[in-house]
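Readers outside the structure-tokenisation community will struggle with the description of the input data as it stands. What matters is that the chain and its backbone geometry are given together, residue for residue. For illustration, here is how one protein appears when written out as sequence plus structure tokens:

…
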Amino acid sequence: MKGYSFSKFIPGNPGGSGFDKMFDAFMQLLNYTNGDAAEALSWLTQLDKEYNFSTPQYGIGDFIDDLKQKGYIDEDNQKGEIKITPKTEQGIRKRSLDEIFGRLKKSRKGNHTTYRSGQGDEANSESRPFQFGDVLDQIDFVSSIRNSQISGGIDSFSLREEDLEIRENDFKTQTSTVLMIDISHSMILYGEDRITPAKKVAMALSELIKTKYPKDTLDIVVFGNDAWPIEVKDLPYLQVGPYHTNTVAGLELAMDILRRRKNANKQIFMITDGKPTCLKEGKKYYKNAFGLDRKITGRCLNLATQCKKLKIKITTFMITSDPYLQSFVRAFTECNNGKAFYASLDDLGSFVFDDFEKGKKKVI
């Protein structure tokens, strides 16, 4: 007989080694220090005074030595610099994926449009009765023969239409995605850190696509006064700058990238917290941070319409509760026939991932 084995409970002695507990805190701190290992270790030392990460047997110095031995940080003795390694960068992406994607509820059906039809490439566990027009390749013969034996008996075998069952398939779309991240100054304005959740979403999304959807493509574009692409490995070090919000430049670059992608399904995810306030005209910048400037918003609406003609869906994630911007976002979304979410910092990742996953599978 199987049973359970109980051990004595010792208060104040949680499981896990000293390294594991410090490592969890260190990896979280790297998100807030923009990948600065020295600053993260400095914060960890300060937090140790309050939360007692270290013990007399295992201190912060031991933890730093272990980080070096395990290949998580490199130290340049000549320059006196400590940097994280590619192993740590990948670890941050994986932890972001586990943190965000692990909270989502499973969902089979989605409403993301695909522009190519076809038979599913992965069997679904669900089945249903045969209907006129179903393809014969989808018939589940084992279940169909069982139904025939139940209804007619083994001796007089007869396979009728009502005995047939269809095994449904999932059609997995191949998608090219551009993730646009606003790095204007407002992303850290009023004492609220909005850039860190945006970076976490980007890192988690890149890890998801790399591991689960290797045929998909993900490009990351950041936009302030200008827009430029960045690599996935650059995400932990991403910082906001003294920039205005040139949404037009970000959209133009995203469209240029997607034009070169061969996948039929193309989309833009735009994470921003503010209104567009900047345009570049030749070598000069046209800026107006006071309200919604029609010259700037008009260009944004035109680009949204162009994306619609190119069958590029734009999903806007507004991480602000300012009702003043809702009218513009609504008009922008209508021009593109896209989507808009008004997400808080806590549920930004859930919104992005739920929408992305819904677009990946469609029951046919």
Summary: The first helix runs from residue 18 to 32. The chain has ten helices and 13 strands.
